Structures are given as structure tokens and as C-alpha cells.
Amino acid sequence: MKRRTHVLEPTGDEMRRMIAAATERIVAHIESLPAQRASDLEGADALARSVAEPLPREGAPLEPLLDRLFGELVPKSLNTAGPGYFAYIPGGGIFHAAVADLIADTVNRYIGIWAAAPGLVQIESDAVRWLCEIVGYGADAFGIMTSGGSIANLTAVITAREDRIRAGILPRRFFDGVVYTSDQAHHSVAKAAALAGVPASGVRAIESDGAQRVRLDVLERRIAEDRAAGLAPFLIVANAGTTNTGAVDDLAALAAIAARESLWLHADAAYGGFFALTEEGGRLLAGLPLADSITLDPHKGLCLPYGTGCLLVKHRDTLRRAHHADAAYLPAMAEGDEQINFSEISPELTRAFRGLRVWLPLKLHGIGPFCDHLEEKLALARLAAAELRAIPGVEVVADPQLSILAFCLAAGGRAPEDADRLNRRFLERINARGRVYLSPTILSDRFVLRIALLSFRTHEERLRQGLEDIRAAAAETLADE
Ligand SMILES: Cc1ncc(COP(=O)(O)O)c(C=O)c1O
């Protein structure tokens, strides 16, 4: 049989042509982002169905495939990389990281074990140490790059579980273990507990106060009740920037409770953590280094592409103790702190070289531009709250603690279902204008709208356009009544 493998090894010219064809479209795409709609899902389901096909037996030329991707498929989506994306938690996608990924993917070096590529493992270790520095952790801290915040939270719960078992706080048969978090926690926390083997009956979503911060009095009472019932409290998961409204729990108070009760304290700072780089955020997050572990998502606050999360731990040995495993076919691994073996301190053996996409942008520009980006988002959120208050009929439900705020059309005398219906229409009208895209949530049983500002491409001009659309949509929605 004639071998066809030569196509798997393109020549230098073929590689240059492929990259040039992709680059041309990538640059055109990025340059047109401000003019693109913030969301365009009309006909997207039918388009998706038209893509489904059986395993190709024959090849197709690159250009038409790229045309289909950039011309049809990419546009029919939420424009998560655009300046008008104010929904959920906006992501990043700086170009420099894409260049790093291209390099990482092509050299395809193995960074799970120090001995396989010491210099590159050092690069990822440096990136992790820089992240530790950002949250205020000391020299004994370390961490791992993950695919995102959910896996970081999962790894945190497992690390906490193993550490507390070792400390004799949690029995080896840990089904009576209890995890405490707030009713504002990201759903990945409860999911992480379930995946780590804690039954749903062992997860306490403690109520939050009027500023969406966990109520410390309720937390302390629940811990005492659980102990009295013979259960084994072992973990508190604090919010350092909730998804709903960016609320930051009282981290110092939670650390004091955790210390008194011998519980592990994990801080979910997936969204909020990088605001430690700002003046105001630094004050709000001053208690962050008191946590035993911290989830931080560079694919949120640090503008990196999706697939870049991390888990940091205050004491590096805790990760190793939870994840170490031997195998005859692996090389001997040094125990020291200098020669890091990521496979020993994380659930993964083989994985992408994630560190390069953190390292390259920071080496190219330093941390300064990222600090300015985050300061800008805090200022824009304050501006948004002030401007929303001036729109007739609009009520600000949650002022920004960081860069997220929640608002709605005031219920007036309406029944709760009618007020929710009104606000659903309000949201649809704003999003239909296509300049910004917002997502809703439920706060105190009310349907409310959120503005989440985190994209490095969002600046005052786009926010003001969004506020114009909100003002117009509010007037139209109320006029319909
Ligand atoms: C506070 C918080 N924690 C965890 C997560 C989960 O992170 P990821 O989506 O990267 O898995 C998110 C995602 O938005 C979040 O906002």
C-alpha cells in the first residue's frame, strides 16, 4: 500500500504557507472585532448541524476550510473575545499567548517531568511562582497550571481532603466530611466536592448577607451543629470574587475560623484574584494569602486564552502528598524543591505546556499593562453603577466590589413573576442591539441583569455605548407595559 504519511511532515514552504493563510485571517478577525456583533446566534444551530459529518477519508485544501471557519462558524457565536462581551465572566485571548501556544505545540516538549526538559519546566515553574507572588504567597508556596478554575477547585478539594485526613481531622473513610461555602459560590465548588467523594448532604451553602458575603455567624453555628451531630467538618471554600456580583468574603475572618476549627481554607479567586494587583482590590483581597489554597484563572483576569487556570497552595508539600504516585516505567524523580516534577504534584501526567502562554506575555511586557487593565475595569464598573442609577426605572441591585455589578428594572408594584418577565424582555432588548452582550442571574429570588467587565478589549467608549443601549431598552420596555 502506498504510504500517505508525507503530508504529516510538511516542507518548510508548506508550513510557511499554512501559517501565512491562518495569520491573514486571524489578523483580519482581530482587527474587525470592534465592528463585529457582541453576539450572533441566529441560524447557528442549523449551521452547526450542517457541519456534522463522518470521519473524512480524503483530505481537503486548507483555504476553503479556513474560509468556512472564519467566514461562517466563528461569527455565529457569542463574541467572547470582543469589547462588548459583558456576560458571565469575560475571558481573554491576547495574541502573544497564541504565539506561545504555536511554539509550545510545535516543539511539543514534555514538561510533566523535570528530566525531560529542565529549562522549559523552569519556565512553567517561574510562571507559577509569579502567580504566587501576585496573590501574596511566600516562599513555601507553589502550584500547578490547570485547564481552568473548575479543575483547580476540584484539585483543591482533593488536596484539602488528603491533608485533613493526614492531620487526623477527617477519618480515612470520609463520608461524614463536611464542606462549607456560601450560597454565592460557583457551582464548580459543589461539583468538586461531589467528584472528590463528599456526598451532597455534606456540602453547606451558607447564606450570604446583603452584600453577597458569607454570613460568618451562620457558618460558625453550622460548624458547631455539624460537630454535635458527629460529622467531620474539614474545608471552608471562601469566595474571592463571586461569579454573580464579584463579592469578596471576609477572608481574614474566615481564616481565623478555619484556624480555630482546624479546617482547610480554600479561596476561589478564579475571577477576583488578579485584582490583588490593583490598589483597591489589594485592600479587599489582603486576606488572600491566609488561605491554604487559591484558585486563580489567568484566562480571566490575566487576559489569557481559555484553558489557563491554576491552583496555588500555601505549602507546596500538600500538593505532592495528595498526588504522588510511582511507576516502574517513569524515570527516578528528585525529591527536592528545585527540580519540579509537575506530574508528581498534579493529577495529570501528559499535558500541554501551559506555562509558556503565561510566561511569554509577562516577559514581553512585564506585569504593568495587566495592572492598568484591571484598574481600568474597576473604574469602568464604578462608572457603570453611577450611570445606571441615572436611568429612569433602573435599580442597581449590587454595587461593584470589583468589576461586576447587577441591576434590573425596579419592580414597582408588580408581582415577582411580572417583574422577572419585564426584566427578561429588558435583557433581550439590550442584547438584540448587538453592541454589548449581558447575562442574567438570580439574586434574592429576583431575575437581575449583570455587567461583568473583564475583557482587555473593553474600554470606556464601549461601556458608554452599552449604557446608551440599556437606557433605550429600559425606556422601550417600560413603554410596552
Ligand atoms: C468564581 C469562579 N470560580 C470558578 C469558576 C470556574 O472556572 P472555569 O470556568 O475556568 O472552570 C468560575 C468561572 O466563571 C468562577 O467565576
What does this structure look like?
44% of the residues lie in helices and 12% in strands. The protein is α/β, with parallel strands linked by helices and 481 residues long. The protein has a 7-stranded mixed sheet, sandwiched between helices. It has a 4-stranded antiparallel sheet with strand order 8-9-11-10, covered by helices on one side. Strand 5, helix 10 and strand 6 (293-296) form a beta-alpha-beta unit. The protein is globular, with a radius of gyration of 24 Å. It starts with 11 loop residues before the first helix and ends with a helix. Pyridoxal-5'-phosphate binds next to helix 6.
List the helices and strands and how they pair.
Layout: H1 12-31, H2 44-51, H3 62-73, H4 95-107, H5 118-135, E1 142-146, H6 149-166, E2 177-182, H7 187-195, E3 203-206, H8 216-228, E4 232-239, H9 251-261, E5 264-269, H10 279-284, E6 293-296, E7 309-313, H11 317-323, H12 342-345, H13 355-365, H14 368-389, E8 394-398, E9 404-409, H15 416-432, E10 440-443, E11 446-452, H16 460-480
Parallel strand pairs: 2-3, 2-4, 4-5, 5-6
Antiparallel strand pairs: 1-7, 6-7, 8-9, 9-11, 10-11
Helix pairs in contact: 1-3, 4-13, 5-13, 6-7, 6-11, 14-16, 15-16
This protein binds pyridoxal-5'-phosphate.
